[in-house]
Amino acid sequence: MIICLMGPTAVGKTPFAVEMVKQFLCEIVSVDSAMVYRGMDIGTAKPTADVLRIAPHHLINIADPADIYSVGQFRVDALRVIADIHARGKIPLLVGGTMMYFRALQQGLAPLPHADRAWRMAFAERVAQAGGWEAMHAQLAQIDPDAATRIHVHDSQRIQRAFEVFELTGKTISAWQTENTAPLSQYRVYNVALVPSDRTELHARIAARFQQMLADGFMEEMEKLYARGDLSPDLPSMRSVGYREGWAHLAGEINFATMCEKTVIATRQLAKRQLTWLRSWPEVQMVTLEMNKNDKKNEKETTEEVKTLVTFLRQSPLVGLNLDFSRDKSLNRDIDL
Prior knowledge:
The protein is α/β, with parallel strands linked by helices. 52% of the residues lie in helices and 10% in strands.
């Protein structure tokens, strides 16, 4: 059995995941393409040391920002960790918002070629010569119209990957994806999605969270990464939301106010894409959360929402399949969180 706890950025997945670790025999597996990188803690909203002591997370801090950590590598690592957790008699609790990673596990991923640094350097020159990513997206539509339909015109990472797969294998990425097999087909997988009741309030939370990141030292973190000398804005790590904008600011391309504005907008766009994925996700239990930008009220409401979710899990087939997965054997009574 595997539980997948999904949701858009800033919705509040971590407190739910931690409470589930307290209530059930779960181990958390992070499903986040930015948290894999060491030294990228504040801008990724990585769990604090206190949280990690209570609920350790697998697959965070496993790669250097100079590395190209792909969805294919995540799949390999996640399947290994899932097997290890099951061997310990526990439930893998996959938590995050990188929907492509969830898709690779649940719906499969063809054995695509690894990222080719030399090819990507040459491709960057082609993008410049073509006039930018919109022009490359138009070219992609001629080669792989299905992929072009799925990929946003400004999603440079996925446009690049579609070209890379086609040129390295001679077959479009859409063709590869139709040959997928689902690696989790041997498991019972239960999807729980946390979604906001009010997108406007989620946007307010996103803005407030970025201000807190700045107060916590995000720019100092960004300066250390920028000063390393072996990183570039073309790396997947530095294309992560917030880091891309922070890099542009340190490079003198945008001022501080513009960086803040662009980061908040990019985060809101990310949340929108994640919600779009979730709306079409097969067999998912939606749990609607009340959003409120008042921190103290938010904490109280979150506690109640955690209690509601845990009650739901106790009453659902999720736990009913095997009661031994609960830390508390008195499953017929409510737990006062």
